[in-house]
Amino acid sequence: MAKREGGSFKYAWVLDKLKAERERGITIDISPWKFETRKYYVTITDAPGHRDFIKNRIIGTSQADCAALIVAAGVGEFEAGISKNEQTHERALLAYTLGVKQLIVGVNKMDSTEPLYNQKRYEEIVKEVSTYLKKIGYNPDRVALVPISGWNGDNMLEPSADMLWFKGWKVTRNDGNASGTTLLEALDCILPPTRPTDKPLHLPLQDVYKTGGIGTVPVGRVETDVLKPGMGSPLLQSMLQLK
């Protein structure tokens, strides 16, 4: 892997698959990735943060049942992201505006604070993030805030031996409280939305592809009704006839 393609961007290659993304070191298109927890099959969507690709960010965010807001705890990094009109503000506000009411906050790069894994730094960030989330409409009591290090795996899958001061996160909800220590546990506490399966089919399109040997393939998320393999759909038939 070339130096320009490595460094701090090398793990972004897992999701940034377009040639332009890898050359420029930024996310351009939304990129889904699936994994399994104890309770759920989870599909995460890596949405671009660059302002030039706001359309793709809106598409990716609008399809989410829960948003994971990752903020950097590194010296100067958090302050740059949380300042007015910067990415932390924009992404949280966009998620809430698009109806994503469940939120998890990961305070990342705890391994780069001064001193390392600093409790005071984490508490400062939690206070400021919670204040902003409350302003835009989120209830901080319903948000799991987790200090993590994605690089070292701290509090990702298992509790970190370097952050024994962290006694865990708690969320208070009308439909059941939840608590835990890791980011994985926070994902397992997401409440699945109730989808109106008795309503007419509503499938907002993300994109339409033309695939050799198959034809036109519309892609989107089913919001109402149910689609199963082999089912016919008047909506899809009509759309294909129009094309």
TrEMBL record:
**What's an example of a GO molecular-function annotation for this chain?**
GTPase activity
| Gene3D superfamilies attached to this UniProt entry | P-loop containing nucleotide triphosphate hydrolases, Translation factors
Superkingdom of origin organism: Eukaryota
Which InterPro entries does the record associate with it?
Answer: G_TR_CS, P-loop_NTPase, T_Tr_GTP-bd_dom, TRAFAC_GTPase_members
Q: Write the record's keywords in alphabetical order, separated by commas.
A: GTP-binding, Nucleotide-binding
Cite the Tr-type G domain residue spans from the record: 1-197
**PANTHER family from the UniProt entry:** TRANSLATION FACTOR
Protein name per UniProt? Elongation factor 1-alpha-like 3
State the organism's lineage: Eukaryota, Metazoa, Chordata, Craniata, Vertebrata
